[in-house]
Design a protein that fits this description.
Elements (H helix, E strand, L loop, with lengths): L2 E3 L9 E4 L3 H4 L15 H14 L8 E5 L26 E3 L10 E5 L11 E4 L13 H5 L9 E3 L4 E3 L3 E5 L5 E7 L2 E15 L7 E3 L12 E3 L4 E4 L2 E12 L6 E2 L4 E6 L3 E4 L21
Parallel strand pairs: 8-18
Antiparallel strand pairs: 1-4, 2-3, 3-5, 5-6, 7-9, 9-13, 10-11, 11-12, 11-15, 14-18, 15-16, 15-17
């Protein structure tokens, strides 16, 4: 991400204090009091949540977290105005450029061995980032685990048989499907949208792939012409789904990188050949006459 420089003014954003014990330290990446473990922005947020959940317990206060700027220095030891006046500015340490979103400040921690000991200096545990960096990302694997319902295939004409050399029309419902799920402790809304339809007409011809779900007669646009009679034919539809998700507490919908697929099949039908014959009367009235067999 691009960075921009900033002054040394302190932004008091969050001062999160909670009780900690050696057992509790295991819940935040294996940290023990006095240790410094560098985390990703999201892992830092998870540590903050773990501390917040422990607030008010009777254990001694052994760890604190707070968000604050980094002093503008190229020193190998990063520091913050929380530790006192910053050294002379040099180099360029800055906040992430998040566009219209307000960047989240780096996360710092300090510890003490016992409740009567002095606090250690503040040390950085997670770099700052854009708000999206503090949210879990729904992966394609997460998306594919959702119970997306396969689509129902409609065949026209729908009478148990179709004619050779005539259009067999297929279509399905392009409706989106919505889900409510959980991702790393966050509530998530997900919308799955069908984006591509691949039809296998079970006669050895090339599959038909289209972005149209198909339309009924007479405005049909997805169809197949069978060249020879056959029995027990079933059409298979593979639908590709794209997804977007929204994490609780964040108003923005985000695209899922990757797609999911569902597969469905039609009821079996027969492909038949019909020949025209000249008859003297309606075959429904006289089915035994020549040409009506």
């Amino acid at each position: 991400m691009k960075r921009r420089s900033f002054g040394i003014s302190l932004a008091i954003v969050i001062a999160l204090i909670a009780a900690a014990s050696s057992a509790f330290a295991d819940t935040i990446g294996g940290q023990a009091a006095g240790d410094t473990v560098r985390m990703t922005a999201f892992e830092g947020e998870q540590a903050v949540r773990a501390l917040r959940a422990k607030a008010g317990t009777p254990e001694a206060l052994l760890r604190e977290y707070q968000r604050a700027v980094i002093c503008n220095t190229s020193s190998a030891e990063l520091t913050t105005p929380l530790n006192g006046a910053c050294p002379a500015a040099e180099g360029d340490t800055g906040l992430n450029n998040c566009g219209t979103e307000t960047p989240v400040l780096p996360l710092w921690t300090r510890t003490r061995a016992t409740p009567t000991d002095a606090w250690s200096a503040w040390t950085i545990v997670a770099d700052g980032g854009c708000p999206a960096d503090l949210l879990p990302t729904m992966s394609a694997a997460d998306f594919r685990r959702l119970p997306i319902a396969p689509q129902v295939i409609q065949v026209q004409p729908d009478r148990g048989w179709v004619l050779v050399n005539k259009e067999t029309i297929v279509l399905t419902d392009p409706a989106e499907q919505t889900f409510r799920t959980d991702l790393l402790g966050y509530g998530v809304d997900v919308v799955a949208t069908p984006t591509r339809y691949t039809w296998d007409f079970a006669d050895g011809t090339r599959d038909l792939s289209t972005t149209s779900p198909g339309h009924p007669y007479p405005g049909f646009d997805v169809f197949h012409v069978y060249a020879r009679p056959a029995q027990g034919v079933a059409i298979t539809l593979t639908t590709q789904w794209s997804g977007r998700y929204r994490v609780d507490g964040d108003d923005e919908w985000r695209d899922i990188v990757g797609t999911a697929e569902t597969t469905s099949s039609s009821a079996p039908f027969e492909v038949v050949e019909r020949r025209s014959h000249l008859v003297s009367q309606d075959c429904n009235q006289d089915p035994d006459q020549p040409g009506c067999g």
